[in-house]
Amino acid sequence: MNYKKISLIISCIFFISCSPLKTKTDISEKGLEKNENSSHHIHLKNSEYLKLGNSKEILYKPEEIKGEIVGQKEINGTKFIEVYDPLEPLNRRIYYFNYYLDKYVLIPAVNAYEFIAPKIVQRGVSNFFSNLQEINTFINSILQLEGRKATITFVRFGINSTIGILGLFDVASALELPKTYEDFGLTLAKYGVGNGPYLVLPGFGPANLRDATGKAVGILSVVEINPYEGPIDFNTNAPVVTTIGAINMRKENQNFRYYGTGSPFEYEYVRYFYTKYRDTLVEVNDIKVKGRGE
Known about the structure:
54% helix; 10 helices; two-stranded antiparallel ribbon; two-stranded antiparallel sheet; mainly alpha
C-alpha cells in the first residue's frame, strides 16, 4: 500500500475540513408569493428544466437572484439544515449526469442481473461484498480504539471467508455475531474533522469532502489488501468482480431513483437527508463512546 499517498490525502482533508467555512444565510424572499391556497411559488428567471415525460419538468439549474443562488431554509413546510455547498452548480450537473448513467447503464444492468441470476446467487453476491466491507470496519474500529468491535469484525470475516466460502454465506450472523459498520469518514469525524463542502460524486452520488476522502481510502484499502489473492489466488480486483460489485451496490440502493420524486427541490432533499444521515451516524458513535467512558 502506498502510505505516502494516504498520508497526503488525510493531510488535505484535515486542512480543508477544519478551516472556517462560510454558509449562505441570506435568503431572498423576493421570489416567494402566496397564492389563493396559501401555497408558495418560486418565480424563477433563466431556469433550465429537464423533461422526463409524463408532463413532468424537473428543475435542473438553480435560480440566481442578484448573483446569489436561492437556498430555501423552508420548502413546502419542511425546514432544512444549511449545508455548505459552494460547488452547487457543478454538483447539480453531476447529479444530472448520474441520472443518465442510471437510466441507460446501471438500472438496465441491475434489471438484467436480477432477471438472469437466481435469488440465491444474488444473496450470495451481496454477502460476498458485505464480507469485504468487514475489512474497512476492522481497520477503522482499530483506528477508533474500538477493540471489541474490531475483534468481532475480525472473527466474522474469518468465519465467513472460510466456512462461509469467501463470504458467500453469512455464517457469522447465524452464530449471532453482530455485523457492525465503520468507514474512514466516520473515523475522521471522530477525531474532529468537519464535513467540508457537499459533493455529488459521479456514479456514487451524494457525499462531502470528508466522506469522499474516506470512501477513496476505503476502496484503496480493499484493493491493496486483496485478501483472497494469496491463499487461493482469487483476485478481488479483477474487472469482472469490480463490475459485479458496482451492479450489486446499485441493486442494494435501487429504491432511490434520480429525479424520481417529481419535486423541483429534489436536489435539496437529497442533500439534506444525506447530511442528516451521516451526522446521525457520527452522533451515534459519539454516544457509544461517551456511554462506554461513563
